[in-house]
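Bug report (template v2)

What were you trying to do?
Predict the complex of my protein with beta-D-glucopyranose.

What happened?
Run completed; filing so the output is reviewed.

Input:
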Amino acid sequence: MAIDRRTMLAAAGASALATTLAAKGALAASAGRFPEGFLWGAATAAHQIEGNNNASDAWLVENVKPTAFREPSGDACNSFELWPKDLDLVRDLGLNTYRFSLEWARIEPEPGLFSIAMLDHYKAMIDGCRARGVTPVVTFSHATTPRWFAARGSWNTPESPDLFARFCDRSARHLAQGIAYALTLNEPANAANQTNAYPPFEALMRSANAAAGKACGSPGFRAGVLTDPDEVAITQLHLLAAHKAGKAAIKAARSDLPVGFSLALEDDEAVGENSVRDAKRALFYGAWLEAAKSDDFIGVQNYDRVLWDDKGVAPPPAGAQLNSLKREVYPPSLANAVRYAHAATGVPILVTEHGMLTDIDQDRARFIPAALTELQKVVAEGVPVKGYIHWSLMDNFEWFLGYGAKYGLCSVDRTTFTRTPKPSAGVLGAIARRNGV
Ligand code: BGC
């Protein structure tokens, strides 16, 4: 391919500009502040807060017996009605960004039947963000899928990438204009990681899918959140294809919209000789990090640190802080995951989730500045980090764990749905307003 001088000069100019901007970011960070325009946000996902998402696969598996869920999602936080209050909350906390997801099951409740009213609902949310000076970061599919899609076998059927791309196409044509960052899929590698992280779920996943299949007369029913361990390899292939096809559909609607996906990345550390850490990374993240190289950014989601010795997961160090799932909470874990994601992909990073599972908000309030101090060091090293989005805006339906597991910056009264900011929300808000820890 011949490249003319103008193109070469433009490319050189762009790269010089990028270097200057990265240097400016690093400079700001070394002065104890984050780069200008840094995104400070909180995240949610439709199924976990909207409530009554009864055309979704998750709704069915939550309400059959046996179920893998501690309790059904029910009304959740009633955010389908209360979303303007959620956006007010984001703004009033001092945050400038809100990450939320579209609910595919509402937009396409039957195959090929697209609801303009539901697309308008999400458009109102995007416009509502803009009206409040809040940057909308939108996930096209966060774990749940329509029930009809699950009945067809979900991500293990070869038609799944095209079906997802059709949904992305219709949604992007309606919504892309106002979105700032789009994520096709949330943590698509998790299917591979899930049985590793929660081995007792293996049997439950199979029986819950089977019970749902019986209830809807589709023996091949697979819920998006319950990947059969034997089908991990095929679902991973289809999810990778779905990301690529979904991204192409979104780009066709608006070519300048930054598109990526989010990846759950533990801070994996190698201990001792012959650690299996790198093999684990290659197996669970390899294909996804490769795919991200051609994206506009990668969404990094980190909650914990895991040590790997020559046999597998090694026990956390003595005295480590553990959450109720016995996983290590470690303030530098986010920074390490971000460093790794950038080194492996070369693309800009948006922290799309980071948070703490705890009933003790004082611990969360201490954890946030400690982790952000470490993140600032990564920015000072020159890694292009676009923003930090905390999981979650409010306590919500924490999947298998139900409502007992708390990640929120705000609590939610389960009867009145009143949202109340916790002290940690004030801590994050103050950091956001200051643009520095
Ligand atoms: C998911 C969220 C979830 C959070 C806390 C992430 O894996 O994207 O949906 O609630 O972690 O477990």
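What did the reviewer find?
The radius of gyration is 21 Å. The mean pLDDT is 92.
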